[in-house]
Amino acid sequence: MLRAASGRSAGAVPPVKPNSSAIIVFLKRVITVAPLPPEKCAYALARYSRSADSIRESLAWVRTHNSEKFLESYYFQYGHQSIADLGHTVLCFEGISELAATEIEDEPLWDGQAKSTRYQDFSKTGFVTPPELQGAQAEAYQHAGRALLDAYGLMHAFELERLRGLLPCPADMKPDAYERNLAARAFDVARYLLFCGIPTHVGQVTSIRTLAKQIRRLAASPYAELRTLASEIAQACAAPPDCVWNTGDPAEPLAPTLARHADADTHTPASLCALTGWATQNLGPIAQENSPEVDLIRPNDPLAEIAATLMYPVTAHSFRALYENVSGWSKARQMEVLDTALQSRGRRDDLLREFRGAQFCFDMAIDLGAYRDLHRHRRTQQFRQAYSGNLGYATPPHAPAAYAPAIDEAFRTFRTLPQPATQYILPFAARSRFLFKMDFAEAEYMSRVRSGVKGHFSYRQIAWQMKLRVEEQLPELGRLIHATPPEVEDPLHR
Asked: Which fold has domain 268-397+426-478?
């Protein structure tokens, strides 16, 4: 409803002066819109931003016009990508492997939740056998997987009994709450024996734009499971939703225009291939030092930082060693790396995320379970090295005798299986190298929140070390991080 501002009314502005131009005031400034099909929502809000109409008038327009034709022209042909940020989709993935879940979640602008390893028992869930494995290789993988799950069940029972003896139920705590908290703590210990082939569920909320990027990235994956998922996502977008809230509502396809344009990302794998070849021919030997579990690097040369970051996923070197080496190169040689990464870039390809600079670069050699927790921090730029198994594995306190043999068998199997399916048998205990780049605000947030007593002890230790590294190099900023030391515990409260 519109009203000329000639006097006061609830929600209106003060009267205008007699010689002022007429002012139109919206008496209701916040207008809610019920959920729409994602592409129609994108069309309505895009038109809303490009016309003088109210949102009600824009919605009325969309009801009588073709949203698919609009998106074909403006999003896919003209490249107005921000339009696709205005429509959001809810997708759920069921029965996928933890490896697939990690790849699905690997989007900077992503919201979602995965099945919790703290509150659910995975001992009887079975596991995903990658389609790349057949015959004797599949049998070896399955034998190692069953051994890990058997040890997982034994370890949970062992740790639960140990905690009952160590921590009697307080008088003011209900017995069922006490048992739930102890069980969760025991699962925290046992989860080291879970592995990347464990099945899980993931629910996500993303914009159409992010979903399109996700499909393109998964379609180019070396894993058959992920390539199949990319195809299934596209098919789901072209069909009416499987679940609706109001059963009387007409079921329209989720994102049919996106489905027609779903294709594989060729730029990223081509860049990785080209960079791998360049590094093999030109990088040469790099002196390696024994780097700490968490190392903080603060680059002051943006070009060298980008070049070193591009080299990081295709080598086995620490980021510090790469950056220090690259910093000594000429600008022309550094640009060779960037040019190599860009040579396959097409019109629809964004710059690779390695090009995004940051102030704080934490290079971490940590277990996969801890990485899965830290991976959820979307305000960071994250890069992974190939899982080699060469960094060993983490062993939680009070591990029973069955722990090491099960892990060792998984590692032996890992070294005999072909790429890329071998990754599926990696336990969460396996250590690998990960680079997290962020600004100070995110470093403070991660360290403060993840070091809290309710967190898993593995990432609590890492979050505390992040604070220590900042404090060592920038004490003025380090003192602003109010992190909790890992020795402070409260295992009975979550």
From this structure: Alpha-Beta Plaits (3.30.70)
